[in-house]
Every structure is written in C-alpha cells, then in structure tokens.
Design brief:
single chain; 124 residues; alpha/beta; 3 helices; globular; disordered C terminus; Gp88; Gene product 88 domain-containing protein
C-alpha cells in the first residue's frame, strides 16, 4: 500500500522499486495528484503495469482530478466499496483495489468500530 508523495525524487524511488519487483502489486491513493510539480512523475508511476494508484478526494475538496485519474473518494462519487458497504466479508474477497484499474471507488468515512462510523453529512 502506497500513499502520499512529497518530492519527484521520492516518486522516482517508488518507480524504481515497482520496476524491480514486477510480480508485486502496489496499490493506494494519493492527494499529491494536486501538486503540479509532482503530476508527471505520479502519472508515470501510476501507469506501471503492477501499480494501482488512485486520486484521493473527499468532501473538503472542490477540485477534481483530470480524467486520466481514477478516484477513491470518501462519501463522494464512485462505486461503493463492497467491504465498506457490507457486500463482501473482506477486502481480500473483493480485490477490486488491486485488480481493476478503470473504476472509481466510494469509501465510508469511519473511525473505530463499524458502529462508530461517522457520516460526513452530519456536519452539514
């Protein structure tokens, strides 16, 4: 699982690691897609055959990634995460995050136990 990226050099290291380990699947989301100086390198990393990197967005952001980015959103647009919405028992039972590139995923905002999950619309 990979996450936010803070320099071009750091992204280049991840590219090198992913290329050296072609049988390992890397997946995650990043808010760094918004950083103009990191955008090209992030796309290079994202487009490797063993990398599944999505743009991370939530209700606090009004900007949207360009069409080449697929999205993981919190209570936003996209297909409901089967695990978050109790459609499958576990992430392993679904595997969409690291096997399917061309889809957007909507996650629930949560902390702690399922009974304590927070709905961001409570704050409207």
């Amino acid at each position: 699982m990979v996450g936010d990226f803070y320099t071009v050099e750091y992204i280049e290291k991840w590219i090198e690691i992913a290329k050296r380990l072609p049988l390992v699947i890397f997946f995650g989301s990043t808010r760094s897609w918004r950083c103009e100086d990191l955008s090209d390198k992030l796309k290079e990393f994202r487009d490797l055959p063993n990398v599944y990197l999505k743009a991370s967005v939530d209700l606090t952001h009004t900007d949207k990634p360009c069409r080449s980015w697929r999205v993981w959103s919190v209570e936003g647009e996209g297909n409901p995460c089967p695990h978050d919405y109790d459609l499958v028992e576990s992430c392993l039972a679904c595997k969409r995050c690291w096997t399917i590139r061309d889809f957007d995923l909507k996650l629930k905002l949560r902390w702690g136990d399922k009974g304590e999950y927070v709905n961001p619309h409570l704050f409207d």
